[in-house]
Amino acid sequence: MGIGVKAVFFDAGGTLVDSRVGLPMRAKFLAERLRSLGYDYGEADVLKALREVGEYVRSLGTDIEYSRRYLLTLMLLKLGLRGCIYRILEPLYEAYKEAVLADVYIYEDSVPVLETLKRRGFLLGLISNTTDYESLRDILKKFGMFELFDSIAASALTLWRKPRREIFMYALSQVDVEPREAVHIGDSLKNDVAGAKSVGMYAVWKVRNKQSLDSMQAPVKPDLVVEKLSEVLDFVKLV
In what order do the strands lie in the sheet with 123-128? Predict the structure, then answer.
């Protein structure tokens, strides 16, 4: 184990797993469920409503997480469906979870890296911005990662989204380590790198292509930039 480092935290989407299609896949599943419930809306209508809800939430500029059920309620209101929300919300929520699970894939080195760190004695944690903890849990279980984590800090549970320091401090408290004893790895400079640095953690930035970063002026400096998670294994032995 590296000197002083006891825990390694990971972001989920874009770091361990990713989506093949994204929002259009969710719109497809939701439109199909709406039609099965007797409401004739096309995928384009649902996709437009989902995007409008996303734009609205972003316009609020808040670091507080909104639940998936609340966001689906806003989507239904955008579609003009009001009196029936209480009856169709749960079937739509289930359809959304099914869409997420059908669309997700895992990076090939995710599980091997987690298992290697676990064997070396590191505590493992997940710090994720997500509107739905159940979907995150199901994804982790699908790929055999759920049992590997000692700590899961999901914004759907903490209510605070990255880069707020509260979600990082919550994650650290779950495994009883100090910020200087932890490394966080993620694909977002703002949410992962700046967030981790704000509480004193080591921060690793995962990117698609390091060569494309040569001329980039990053607003915050990560301790390491990697293209593959396996590059982290040597780093945690040295810090």
Answer: 151-154, 123-128, 7-10, 182-186, 202-206, 224-226
CATH code of the domain covering residue 211: 3.40.50.1000
Residues 83-119 as b/e (b if ≥16 CB within 10 A, e otherwise) read eeeeebbeebbebbbbbbeebbebbebbbebbeebbe
Q: Copy the structure tokens of residue 28.
A: 């497809």
Q: How many domains does the chain have?
A: 2
The pLDDT value given to residue 3: 53
Range of the structural domain that residue 224 is part of? 7-16+107-238
Which value, in Å, is the radius of gyration of the alpha carbons in the chain? 19
- Residue 1: per-residue pLDDT: 46
In a domain, 46, yes or no: yes
What's the rounded Cα separation, in Å, for the pair 67 and 73?
A: 10
The residues near 87 (Cβ < 8 Å, ≥ 6 apart) are: none
In a domain, 149, yes or no: yes
Residue found under tokens 């995007």 = 51
pTM for the structure as a whole: 0.92
